[in-house]
């Protein structure tokens, strides 16, 4: 599809630059990429603890096991979801990512209220972004905690990021009843 539209794939990247072939907002490669997302639905179970949504700036330099262990360690150290997201972006930079990095850590655990209170309310999420790929970007990061819902009641998670001067709407996650599929926008 990329080659038919006049592009090429070099080192697994569109025209040697973009790591994904489904994207929007990239004017130079607009003719080579499509905005249609590839969607995967996964039913969460009682043993699932968190969901880590991240850009290729994270996944280019670490696997899912390292990401989970890093986030879990931060939460166990009392740093919560904010600390988990920050630990992941910091580790991506330490591992030499050459791309900006966005990480959202969502608590989906069924821990008891007492152990959950130590990290975040049920259904909470935290977004961490690095606007640039240099170390100084960590001092300018745009991040914001995201509210949750009372234990046991599915509610949407509004994901947004802001610097205090303005906020950027990123979307909404809706937890679904057992057997249903998650809805998002």
UniProtKB/TrEMBL annotation:
Top-rank taxon: Eukaryota
InterPro entries (alphabetical): PP2C, PPM-type-like_dom_sf, PPM-type_phosphatase-like_dom
Pfam families: PP2C
Region (Disordered), start-end ranges: 137-185
Domain PPM-type phosphatase span(s) in chain numbering: 1-108
SUPFAM superfamilies associated with the record: PP2C-like
GO molecular function, one term: protein serine/threonine phosphatase activity
Comp. bias regions, Low complexity: 143-156, 175-185
UniProt xrefs under CDD domains: PP2Cc
PANTHER family assigned: PROTEIN PHOSPHATASE
Descriptive protein name: PPM-type phosphatase domain-containing protein
Source organism (scientific name): Hemiselmis andersenii
